[in-house]
Amino acid sequence: MVSDRLLLVNKSNQGAAKIDTFDWVYGFQDGTRLMGKVCGYLDPDSNRLLDPENCSAIYQNAQGQVLSRWQAGDFIAFELTTTGEDLLIVASNDNCIGNSFCLVSGISRSCAQVSDEGKSLVREVFQYPAWSFQGDNSTSKPAFSWNCSVSPFFPFVSLRFNLQSTSSKKFYRWTVSPYFPFCPLGV
Fold first, then answer.
1. Can you tell me the distance from the alpha carbon of 71 to that of 55, in angstroms, rounded to the nearest whole number?
2. Using an 8 Å Cβ cutoff, are 41 and 17 in contact?
3. Cα–Cα distance between 20 and 180 in angstroms, integer?
4. pTM of this structure
5. CA–CA separation, 179 and 164 (whole Å)
């Protein structure tokens, strides 16, 4: 049975092949958990996450202390469907010698496991209610904001452009002031 928590993905972006960020969590029965992020886009026909990139994960104990980390280059496999029927996530930060994790959910095998220095820290049969996959709803700021103002005092028209970086306090201003001399009409 698939958990209700499994499908918390924002489906409004399925029409376009837009890359989104997704958060995933697997909670082990001992209170520890695997938490991670992945970027990719959802195929609306198969509900499969396509082109996963920028994967990262942490393993933390019940008190929230981080015990292990994995970065993008550590992921060997990252495949999943939003229904949770097919899931394969494998990562190792030491070429699968001792510091690794795997989440496998399929017809023939289901497993959730984390190892450190060659010893299994936790291992259990993959439980759907312990799995969560959702879109990252954090709002990102644009890199720049801009505005434009016009001063229509004829014949002294000015046009001002303001550009500001949202990540710093840098501010750029351009002002264009064309002058239109007054020309009397007629003799």
1. 6
2. yes
3. 50
4. 0.62
5. 27
